[in-house]
Amino acid sequence: AGERSANVQTKVRGIAPAFYPFLAGPANAAAQSLEDENGVQIRVPPHQPFSRVPAPVAPAPGQRPVFHPAGSDDDHIQLAGDRAAVQKVRAEIERRAAQLQKELEAEQLSIQRGRHQFIVGDRGVPADDFFAETGCAILLPSEEDDDMVTIIGPADRVQAGLERAMDLAMGMQMSNIDISRFHRTAPSGAAAHAANVTRYLRQRREIERLEKLYNTHINTPFSQDGALPWELYSREGKNAIRAQSEITGIINGLPPSRMQAVPVDPFFHQHLRNDVTPRVKKDYGVHVVVPEASEADAPVLLVFEGPDPADGPYQVPRTKPTDAEVKAFQQGIDDARKHILELLNK
């Protein structure tokens, strides 16, 4: 019983997540040092650039920023080990946090929201690397309409942290390509056809292929009316130009005659995905785009591809089709549409 009660697990509450990178230290060195000295296990939650509590607001001159404590149980620092050692480590962590409360500054900067992803994260630098390099923590807004980036650090490092964030954000060149202008006379409307093309290329993983090939991030936003212009972000401007050139060829090869939207009750989506889609491709040469769960109200999209080539995977076309090809598209799509609707009616 004595052995059991001597070991405890506890959470250190009331400390702001903004302090966690400073308490853990670069590469977790400060927390590791405390562990080794006291024989206690310490788990500091990893630094999350997307704030889970309200971000500290840059204060008025002469005032201190307000750092909000962690809210949920998962966000607290956890300690485990001998009771006396755990109490000693808790007191030391609380002392360091009180010191950080007095020393740390917060600065904020409005940066275009589409560029946040290039500061930290998969398309920027890891949050831990940003901290190790600048000595500052960074918080990005989680609200859609907020573009304020917050930098937290010692007074003599905050400006350098802001500069680094701006360099990373603005190091990406951005260009637009309005794919609705290629087929202005589409029967369903240019923006709606652009949305169909975008959904098809996303589902076919063509956009992913282009991103890897040209080292360019392609953002494909939608509005209620259809697809908005695509945004191409690249650290090397020439890559974006090359990507635009290939995209132009692909869009020219996907006229309205090549695809048709068919409204289908979402109840049938899973059945279409599992049982119908492979047969329709084999029998009619038509690729079926079934909406994802997140876009359940979107129509099913039929895209004529023709039979799969014998010498490798299907390649999306890059040239404008001939009149004879357009007739073949329409025939194939009409046959596939009738077949699918007959199946669903049964």
Structural summary, described in words:
- The chain has 346 residues and is of the alpha+beta class.
- It contains 11 helices and 14 strands.
- Strand 9 and strand 10 form a beta hairpin.
- Helix 8 (206-214) runs antiparallel to helix 9 (237-252) and helix 10 crosses helix 11 (323-345).
- It starts with a helix and ends with a helix.
- The model has no long low-confidence stretch (mean pLDDT 86).
Main sheet strand line-up: 1-3-2
Strand content: 15-25%
Q: Spans with pLDDT under 50 lasting ≥5 residues? A: none
Main β-sheet description: 3 strands, antiparallel
Instruction: Please give the count of helices.
Output: 11
Q: Helix- and strand-based class? A: alpha+beta
Shape summary:
elongated
Mean pLDDT: 86
SSE blueprint and pairings:
Blueprint: H1 2-6, E1 7-12, H2 20-24, H3 29-38, E2 41-43, E3 77-82, H4 83-103, E4 104-110, H5 127-134, E5 137-139, E6 148-154, H6 158-170, E7 173-177, H7 190-203, H8 206-214, E8 217-219, E9 222-223, E10 226-227, E11 230-234, H9 237-252, E12 259-262, H10 269-284, E13 286-289, E14 300-304, H11 323-345
Antiparallel strand pairs: 1-3, 2-3, 4-6, 5-6, 7-11, 8-11, 9-10, 12-14, 13-14
Helix pairs in contact: 8-9, 10-11
